[in-house]
Specification:
- There is one protein chain.
- 28% of the residues lie in helices and 20% in strands.
- By secondary structure, it is an alpha+beta fold.
- It has a domain of 37 residues.
- The chain has a 4-stranded antiparallel β-sheet with strand order 3-4-5-6, with no helix packed on it. The chain has a two-stranded antiparallel ribbon with strand order 1-2.
Length: 135
């Protein structure tokens, strides 16, 4: 969709700009993982188990966002203030990039809502970034 703008206001859900080319997500609910998230939540409720994303996870995310807002206001790094921390206190430093195979470095490994593993790889020779998925 192309819009010339002219007036400020609502253009489209999650649009990053008010004028120019807009590329909306085709099926936002599915593409952004809402279907999997809600299915997991309702299954957990029915089975009286914890969902994959808990209230505690939301608490952590909100505390991080609060630190971001404080940082934007103060124009410096601000600490994340957690009253409740369930994680480890001392951890090893993790190298962000490590060998994947003889030709590639593993930049990132992520588990998608459907269980698929997404791998972001960097070719050691060319520097080209590629993506692989596996179940």
């Amino acid at each position: 969709m192309f819009t010339a703008g002219g007036k400020k206001g609502y253009v489209a859900e999650k649009a990053e700009t008010e004028k120019g080319w807009l590329f909306p997500v085709g099926d936002e609910v599915v593409e952004l993982g809402y279907t999997d998230m809600l299915t997991d939540m309702f299954n957990a409720f029915e089975n009286k188990t914890e969902p994959k994303e808990t209230f505690y996870d939301g608490y952590i995310v909100n505390e991080i966002m609060d630190a971001c807002y404080r940082s934007a206001k103060s124009k410096r790094w601000e600490p994340v203030r957690l009253k409740i921390w369930r994680g480890r206190e001392k951890t090893e430093r993790i190298s962000a990039i490590r060998d994947f195979d003889k030709d590639h470095l593993l930049v990132k490994e992520e588990t998608m809502p459907d269980g698929t593993i997404k791998l972001i790889l960097k070719n050691k020779q060319t520097g080209i970034i590629s993506q692989k998925t596996r179940k």
